[in-house]
Amino acid sequence: MISRTLQQIADMLGSEAKQLNKEITIQGVSTDTRSIQQGSLFVPLIGDHYDGHAYADEAYSKGAAAVLWQDDHPNPPEGMPIIRVTDTLTALQQLAKAYRKQLPVRIVGITGSNGKTTTKDMVAAVLGSAFNVHKTKGNFNNHIGLPLTLLQLEETTQFAVLEMGMSGRGEIELLSDLAEPEAAIITMIGESHMLQLGSRDEIARAKAEILSGMPNGGLFVYNGDEPLIEQAFAERTVPTDLHRIRFGGAAGSNDLYPTSIRMNADGAYFQINSPGYPELYIPLLGTHNVVNALAAIAIGEAFGVTPQAIAAGLRSLQMTSMRIEKLTAASGLTVLNDAYNASPASMRAAIALTEQLSGFGRKFLVLGDMLELGEHEEQFHREIGALLTPDRVDYVFTFGRLGYFIAEEAEKTFSQSHARAFDNKEQLIAELTALTKADDIVLVKGSRGMRLEQVVNALLE
Predict the structure, then answer these.
(1) pTM for this one?
(2) Alpha-carbon Rg for the chain in angstroms
(3) Which of 55, 85, 240, 457 could form a disulfide linkage to 91, CB 3.0–4.6 angstroms apart?
(4) Whole-angstrom Cα distance, residue 406 to residue 396?
């Protein structure tokens, strides 16, 4: 993490350190008094319903060595080192950018409508087989989280793998300009953020902003199955001598693609068109995860990781939770927990995975609302329901106002009671508990706001 004197911090911000010893050393940065560490710099952010300045005394009493203080706030605290700034959020971002420039670290930035976190974990695993790697933790992928991640980097970190999220135009550009990634990945363009951006074309343009902070001669790795990425690329100014690698499921439109895929209950085995590789394995389910693994392989190859080390890195992959976790209840029931988030693309992928798996008794789908899809949200949900057929899954249960449209479409082909909509989670859980048997499998999938992990926990218990 950042370790600089108070005077050095002030210089990085173009500000003045006041009160007490300017040679005090700052160790790390925090915006939350609950995570204050001894010697850290406390940055009081301001939100719609909170003002971190009110917690400056508490932060100092818990061990903060100094506090940023926004100029328009009166009565700065006495008796503690402070650095006056015009805006604390801007100062946090400025400090992160200045610190990043002082480090020799090489940065890989990742964005996309789906698969960002999974791809981040796989890239970190591949690079981690040969280098000292730091990756975004949890959901620290926005205008606050990414600067904090940069400030967590050690002087000895060789690679940082940074996830970049967004809800509108300009956000990815800000993150890219802060991080200056040497390599960038776009996983795919889906329907997430249709509410804010209105079309997949606009979503593609927003994702392509990741190129804005890249140096000349950088590496751009992107899903060649999606023509909108090429279109967005052609519309914008890009770094010179940019090296491009396309990955995906189709051979014709990609430089890197799988030549064979086979699934078992614990993960996916696959081979790729690049020579010198053994059969690869990831402890993840689903063809879409194999495709995302190709992006990690492309990054590994570009930075000199051997095929054997890439294979070992993917095999040892450690995943962020609630992204198609395969769980086993005490009864023997198999639960696929994908309750972290949902969009039409990720919903289709999770359903396809469940349909492909063999060796189980009956297959249950528990599908919740997909949120933030804008004016066409009903259509997107109906399209999911229309995909479902009783020869591939046995039961379709939905939860939520929009989930009702999935069930309504599924009811057209499923027998009575095998496709049902619920608006009461306890009733849904009771029905599942009564119906499922030890050799069955249940996919639980929905947007985070639907809290479907409650269904997962109930099934496991």
Answers:
(1) 0.79
(2) 24
(3) 85
(4) 9
How many angstroms separate the first and last alpha carbons of the chain? 40
Letter for the amino acid at 65?
A: A
35 known ligand binder:
no
Give me the residue label for tokens 């479907």. Answer: 452
The dihedral region occupied by 297, where left means phi > 0, alpha psi between -120 and 50, and beta the remainder, is: alpha
Domains of the chain, each with CATH number or no CATH = 3-85 (3.40.1390.10), 103-315 (3.40.1190.10), 325-460 (3.90.190.20)
433 has binding-site annotation? no
* Band (292; pLDDT cuts 50, 70, 90): very high
Report the C-alpha gap between 258 and 293 in whole angstroms: 10
Q: Say whether 112 counts as a known binding-site residue.
A: yes
Q: Which two tokens stand for residue 393?
A: 């899954």
Per-residue pLDDT, 193 = 66
- For residue 260, give both structure tokens: 């064979």
- Return the ∠ at Cα 460 (arms to 405 and 356), rounded to 5°: 55
The 8-class DSSP code of residue 46 comes to B
Beta bridge partners of 328: 334
Q: For 4-19, what is each residue's pLDDT tens digit?
A: 999 999 999 988 766 5
Mean pLDDT (the chain) is 92
**113 annotated as belonging to a binding site for a ligand:** yes
The pair of three-digit structure tokens given for residue 277, joined into one six-digit string: 């590789």
Alpha-helical (H) ranges within 38-164 are 56-61, 88-102, 116-128, 145-152
Q: Coil, helix or strand for 100? A: helix
Q: Do the strands 334-338 and 66-70 form a parallel or antiparallel pair, or are they unpaired? A: unpaired
Q: What is the DSSP secondary-structure string of 68-89?
A: EEETTSSSPPSSS-EEEES-HH
Residue 116 labelled as part of a binding site: yes
Torsion of CA 348, 351, 355, 360, to 10 degrees: 170
Window from 26-30, 105-109, 309-313, 447-451 with minimum mean pLDDT: 447-451
> Within a 13 Å sphere around the CA of 173, how many CA atoms are in the beta-carbon half?
11
With b meaning 16 or more CB within 10 Å and e meaning fewer, what string describes 4-14?
A: bebebbbebbe
Q: Would the pLDDT of 428 be above 70? A: yes
> pLDDT value at position 102?
97
Report the run of H or E that residue 253 belongs to, with start and end: none
Which residues contact residue 232 at a Cβ distance below 8 angstroms, ignoring those fewer than 6 apart? 201, 204, 205, 207, 208
**133 or 349: whose pLDDT is higher?**
133
Per the CB < 8 A criterion, the answer to whether 294 and 272 are in contact is: yes
Mean predicted confidence (pLDDT) in 42-49:
93
